[in-house]
Amino acid sequence: MKAVDISGIKSLLNQPKNIVIVPHKNPDGDAIGSCLGLYHLLLQLNHHVTIIAPNDYPHFLKWMPANEKILIYETDSKKCEAIIQKAELIFTLDFNALFRTGEMETPLKEAKAIKIMIDHHQQPDDYAKYVYSDVMMSSTAEMVYHFISKLSLNNLITPHIGTCLYAGIMTDTGSFRFPNTNSTTHRIIADLIDKGANNSAIHHNIYDTNSYQRTQLLGRALNNLHVLPELKTAYIVLSQNDLNEFNFKKGDTEGFVNYGLSIEGIVFAAIFIESMQDEIIKISFRSKGSFDVNEFSRAHFGGGGHINAAGGKSELSLSQTVEKFISILPQHKSTLTK
What would the CATH number be for the domain defined by 3-207? Predict the structure, then answer.
């Protein structure tokens, strides 16, 4: 982010304003953690701040400080639209294209507020006046930390801010094991701990609160795990019946795709989840090394993300989607097996 942009944002934040912070649809730990971290900072600067999430998110993210203040557009669109219309500043966090907010796209496009983007995904759209985009960053939560530093406001990082940013960084780095984790990330984490983030409690709240039914669903997912050793690929299939049998809740399949990637010799993993409500097959892709799942998803399944982590969707049936996936793989054999 250029010095002139930082100067402009500092000027905007000098006087109290109506500010809205928005994560992407189906927000994950990084989206919620970065939004709440920024929320707590802006409150200290005497702004009136509202976080509006496009839709609900998993229970294991709802323990973070001030989570109860987050409004859900899907359940109260009129109230949320009124707040968006009155906003003077809108921060969009952890996404770089307004369609990623689902039904919020139109009110956000029509908003007169100045928009500020903070995001680490590839190929950002041109909708924000101020753009902080860096695909090399581990997470948007790490970028919010750097953003606070650029504003020379590190002294305002409280235990609440530290907790939220730690949670965001931890979830988007797979507990600091993904390739996007570097020494700077660890130094930031150390500083957040020094500022009051309780790393053990954060990890417990996110990873150690599984329901019995989610654990059973994981068992079904592992039973539905298929391996294509000649293509170094593994994939999991979950039907709507599978989800219904174990009383599926939003977020229950979080991290399941990584079990395929954990198998020795596998460099590409996918999970296909049937959603009758949305009439689509939801897909998550993960990879190791240089195989680019962002490009794979963009080319074949209308999605995108990062080099080693991306999402997609299919309007075909579950079986047809899997058949399409398997039929495409030989095109990438040289990259997968080199």
Answer: 3.90.1640.10
